[in-house]
C-alpha cells in the first residue's frame, strides 16, 4: 500500500471521528442551553409570582418541578406556599415524605407551624424540638414553640421561649407582639400596653396592633382615650358599642389560636378571585367542585376570634421565601374592583329532611368573589362576606336567625370588621359538609344565596 493511500485513509478516519465528537458536543451543549433557559424561565416566573403574591401560580410551578425532580427543597417551598394559603392538609402531605431523612431545621419549623395550625400541639412541639436540636440558634423555632406553649396555657414556658427567640435574633417586632398577647392573657394590661406602644411608636399601624392597643386601653379603663383612638384610626363606625363589647369579654374568649381563615388582605382577595376564575375556566375543576359541594381551601395569615376582629393576634406567619411586596400591582387592583358591596335584606334558616339551610336574601346576586366559606374542623365553619351592608336590625338579628335552627347548629357567633366584612362562626352538632349555591330567581323576592349543611354520612 502506497504512502499516499495510507495517508488518505488516516485522514478520512480523523475526519469521521472529528464529525462524531463535534456532533456530540453540539447535542450536549444544546441540552445544557435548553436546561439553563428552562431554569431561567422558571426562576423568572417564580420571581413574578412571588412579587405579585400569585400563590396559585407558585403552587403549579413547584408541582411541575416535583414531577421533573422530587427534592426536599422543592417540597419545602411548595409546602410553604400551601401554608400561606392556609391549605394545611396539602402542606402536611407535601412535607411528610422527607421528614424521616431531613436534617434541615427549617423543614421541621414549617412542619411545627402546620401541626400547630391543625391543633396538634404536642406533635408541633416534637418537631420544633427537633429543629432546635439541629440548630439551637433558630429563633423562629423558639417563637413558634412559644406560641404552641401559649395554646397549651403554659405561660411561663411560653415567655421563656419568646425570650430565647429574641436572644437568637428572631424578628423583634413579632416577639414583642407575642409578649404583649401573653401579657393580655395574664391580664397584665399595663405590660401589654407597654409592649404594644413600642410597636406603635416605631410606626406600626396594622389592624392587629391598633386593635390590641384599643383592647388594652379599654381594659385599663381609659375609655375617653380608647374612644378617641378608635375614631382617629377608624376601627369602628360605632366606637361606643365596640368599647362596651370589649369591656365584657375576657382575653381567653377573645383569642382563637387555630383560626385558619385569612385576614382581608390584598393577597387573599387576589388568590380567592384567581381560584374562582380558574374554576370557571376548567371544566374538570367545575365538575369536582360541584361534586364535593364547597371549596374549603384557605389562604395565607391567621385571624382573631370573630367576636372581636383582630384582638390579641399571634404573629405566627412564615414568609421565608415568599417576598412581601409593598406596592399594589395591577392584578391585585383588578381583583379588588371585582368585589362589590353586598346589601343583606334578610336571613332565614330552617331544617329539611337531610340538611339545615341558611339563606341570605340580598339586593344583588352574591358572587363567588364576595364570600369565602371555610371548614375549620369537621364541626366548625367560617363564613366571610366581604363589604356588606347589614339589615337595620344588625348582626344580632343575623346570628339569631341562624341559631334558631337548633337541630344541627350548636353555636353561632359573628362580627362586622372595620373593613365591613361580616364574619360568621357556625358550629354544628355533628360532622358536616356544606353545599353553597345561588337559589335562583324563584326562591325569594330579591336574590337568594343558600348554604346547606349536611351530615357527612348522608
SSE topology sketch:
Elements: H1 3-51, H2 55-68, H3 72-84, H4 88-99, H5 105-117, H6 121-134, H7 139-151, H8 155-167, H9 172-185, H10 189-201, H11 207-219, H12 223-232, H13 239-248, H14 251-254, H15 266-281, H16 283-292, H17 330-338, E1 342-351, E2 355-362, E3 371-377, E4 380-385, E5 388-389, H18 395-403, E6 409-416, E7 422-428, E8 432-438, E9 447-455
Parallel strand pairs: 1-5
Antiparallel strand pairs: 1-2, 2-9, 3-4, 4-7, 6-7, 8-9
Helix pairs in contact: 1-2, 2-3, 3-4, 4-5, 5-6, 5-7, 6-7, 7-8, 8-9, 9-10, 10-11, 11-12, 15-16, 15-17
Helix content bin: 40-55%
Q: Count of helices?
A: 18
Total count of strands: 9
Give the H and E element order. HHHHHHHHHHHHHHHHHEEEEEHEEEE
Strand content: 5-15%
**Class of secondary structure makeup:** alpha+beta
What spatial order of strands do you see in the largest sheet?
Answer: 5-1-2-9-8
N-C termini distance: 94 Å
Radius of gyration: 27 Å
Could you tell me the CATH topology label of the largest domain: Serine Threonine Protein Phosphatase 5, Tetratricopeptide repeat
Rough shape?
A: globular
Name of the CATH superfamily of the largest domain: Tetratricopeptide repeat domain
Number of separate structural domains: 2
The biggest sheet amounts to: 5 strands, mixed
> Which CATH class of the largest domain applies here?
Mainly Alpha
Low-confidence stretches: 25-37, 256-312, 317-340
Query: Could you say what the CATH architecture of the largest domain is?
Result: Alpha Horseshoe
| Mean pLDDT figure | 76
Amino acid at each position: 500500500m502506497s504512502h499516499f493511500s495510507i495517508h488518505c485513509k488516516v485522514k478520512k478516519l480523523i475526519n469521521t471521528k472529528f464529525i462524531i465528537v463535534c456532533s456530540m458536543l453540539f447535542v450536549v451543549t444544546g441540552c445544557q442551553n435548553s436546561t439553563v433557559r428552562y431554569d431561567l424561565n422558571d426562576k423568572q416566573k417564580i420571581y413574578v409570582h412571588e412579587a405579585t403574591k400569585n400563590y396559585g401560580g407558585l403552587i403549579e410551578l413547584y408541582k411541575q418541578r416535583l414531577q421533573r425532580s422530587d427534592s426536599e427543597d422543592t417540597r419545602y417551598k411548595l409546602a410553604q406556599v400551601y401554608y400561606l394559603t392556609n391549605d394545611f392538609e396539602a402542606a402536611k402531605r407535601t412535607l411528610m415524605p422527607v421528614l424521616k431523612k431531613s436534617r434541615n431545621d427549617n423543614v421541621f419549623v414549617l412542619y411545627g407551624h402546620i401541626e400547630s395550625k391543625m391543633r396538634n400541639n404536642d406533635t408541633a412541639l416534637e418537631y420544633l424540638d427537633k429543629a432546635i436540636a439541629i440548630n439551637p440558634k433558630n429563633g423562629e423555632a423558639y417563637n413558634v414553640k412559644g406560641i404552641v406553649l401559649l395554646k397549651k396555657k403554659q405561660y411561663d414556658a411560653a415567655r421563656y421561649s419568646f425570650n430565647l427567640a429574641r436572644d437568637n435574633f428572631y424578628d423583634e417586632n413579632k416577639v414583642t407582639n407575642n409578649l404583649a398577647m401573653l401579657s393580655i392573657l395574664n391580664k397584665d394590661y399595663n405590660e401589654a400596653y407597654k409592649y404594644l406602644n413600642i410597636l406603635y411608636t416605631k410606626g406600626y399601624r396594622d389592624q392587629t396592633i391598633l386593635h390590641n392597643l384599643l383592647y388594652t386601653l379599654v381594659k385599663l379603663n381609659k375609655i375617653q382615650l380608647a374612644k378617641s383612638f378608635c375614631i382617629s384610626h377608624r376601627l369602628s363606625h360605632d366606637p361606643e358599642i365596640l368599647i362596651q363589647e370589649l369591656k365584657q369579654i375576657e382575653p381567653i374568649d377573645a383569642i382563637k389560636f387555630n383560626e385558619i381563615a385569612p385576614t382581608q388582605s390584598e393577597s387573599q382577595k387576589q388568590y380567592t378571585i384567581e381560584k374562582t376564575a380558574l374554576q370557571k375556566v376548567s371544566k374538570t375543576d367545575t365538575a369536582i367542585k360541584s361534586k364535593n359541594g364547597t371549596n374549603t381551601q384557605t389562604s395565607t395569615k391567621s385571624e382573631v376570634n370573630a367576636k372581636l376582629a383582630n384582638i390579641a393576634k399571634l404573629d405566627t406567619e412564615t414568609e421565608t421565601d415568599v417576598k412581601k411586596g409593598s406596592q399594589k400591582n395591577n392584578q391585585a387592583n383588578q381583583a379588588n374592583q371585582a368585589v362589590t358591596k353586598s346589601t343583606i335584606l334578610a336571613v332565614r334558616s330552617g331544617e329539611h329532611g337531610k340538611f339545615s339551610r341558611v339563606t341570605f336574601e340580598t339586593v344583588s346576586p352574591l358572587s363567588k368573589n364576595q364570600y369565602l366559606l371555610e371548614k375549620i374542623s369537621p364541626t366548625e365553619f367560617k363564613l366571610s362576606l366581604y363589604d356588606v351592608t347589614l339589615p337595620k336590625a344588625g348582626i344580632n338579628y343575623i346570628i339569631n336567625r341562624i341559631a334558631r335552627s337548633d337541630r344541627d347548629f350548636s353555636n353561632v357567633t359573628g362580627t362586622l370588621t372595620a373593613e365591613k366584612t361580616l364574619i360568621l362562626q357556625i358550629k354544628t352538632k355533628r360532622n358536616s359538609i356544606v353545599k353553597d349555591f345561588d337559589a335562583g330567581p324563584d326562591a325569594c323576592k330579591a336574590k337568594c344565596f343558600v348554604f346547606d349543611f349536611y351530615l357527612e354520612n348522608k
